């Protein structure tokens, strides 16, 4: 009877992911020549055959585990991740794949015979390793793991932030405030910096317009958007910028509430642009200008990458970057 990757991993004392990458001649993997030799020798002795990695037959129903870093409650507070999940579930249904949903803190619910994992959100190196040991067919959504050898689906934050800054600049608003988020992975091992903050800072510094006093950090919730904008109003007073970029819609909705309570007119005194274009953007007053992210496409692309990897036997990791568009509504001046 032919051996499996798990058999080889157990015999050598390394992870399943390490065995998979060594047998596929991944020279970017940091592993000793002795370990590589051991893996190949054990594979030969145990009669391992790559025939085990042939494309899965068309009539086999793929089983995909969807691992979320957000809890059910937190997902309802920020519809961005829910939209991604619904997109991938819709694509899976179209392809007649089976999806099972779980959370990062409960990986025990993932079946041993799962064909692939789609991980939505932010994960620490330790969490990534734990997922990789379950299957080599792994895709990350909203976190770039290409450098670590895994398929990734991400948003083009660089162009998105540039569009926001360019728009404000064209309106004559060169002093731009920022409300951004910061958070930690669920195991509290890695801080996750907001890529929109990093790009905003880089771009504004290059233009000689970055002002640290106009930058405020929250935690992506509506409450933090309200609190940080209230803080900005109190500390900056008459020097409050005429334009604010807020890096997600729930925070932007909270910021709008703070401005309204302070009798600061939007958009005449302060223009505001959010990010993601979730449904909340159209149900606040005034309606929120925001960067539209095609969250459904993020989800469907992840499923497509899984299908391609399994059906073709592809082992080279891919990164797919999804573009954005700026949607202008009532919260910004439009000339």
UniProtKB/TrEMBL annotation:
It comes from the Bacteria. The keyword DNA-binding applies. Keywords: DNA-binding, Transcription, Transcription regulation. The keyword Kinase does not apply. Residues 3-59 form the HTH lacI-type domain. InterPro entries: HTH_LacI, LacI/GalR-like_sensor, Lambda_DNA-bd_dom_sf, Peripla_BP_I. PANTHER family: HTH-TYPE TRANSCRIPTIONAL REGULATOR EBGR, LACI-RELATED TRANSCRIPTIONAL REPRESSOR. This is LacI family transcriptional regulator.
